[in-house]
Design goal:
single chain; alpha+beta; 7-stranded mixed beta sheet; 2 helices; 7 strands; 20% helix
């Protein structure tokens, strides 16, 4: 049993994004102090909520959601430490790599990345989650 905390304010803060939501009652991300962890960011169009058919369009939307998330927490993509991508077509990485190198053009300053094979539903071809440390100066 843990002892009561002296500060009654909640440490964890849920982050919700306009134009992005989950069917289940979960936020887009959660933050404790400088640490930000996202849930699954999908390729749904932020304007229409529709899932595009192409992997290229879904990847572009995922990276749009990543930018929106980082902006919502007063961060930047430079604060991202690691990104994990689930791909329905595990070896089909061209569209992902195009968006990746556009967001992170400098190979010396990219976050860690992992790509895993995924069984996705609802027409999704890609999911992403990320871990970021906000307000850091890097190293």
């Amino acid at each position: 049993m843990s002892s009561p905390r002296p500060d009654p304010a909640p440490r964890r803060v849920s982050v919700y994004l306009p134009g992005f939501g989950h069917a289940n009652p979960v936020p887009a991300a959660s933050r404790i102090g400088p640490f930000l962890a996202s849930g699954a960011l999908t390729g749904r169009d932020p304007a229409t909520g529709e899932m595009p058919e192409s992997l290229q369009a879904q990847c572009a939307n995922v990276f749009t959601h990543v930018r929106a998330l980082m902006e919502a927490v007063d961060g930047t993509t430079d604060d991202i430490l690691k990104m994990t991508f689930g791909l329905a077509g595990y070896r089909d990485r061209d569209a992902l790599n195009r968006e990746w190198t556009a967001m992170f053009p400098d190979p010396a300053h990219r976050p860690a990345r992992q790509v895993v094979a995924a069984r996705l539903d609802g027409g999704a071809l890609v999911h992403c989650d990320l871990l970021a440390i906000l307000g850091g100066t890097g190293g």
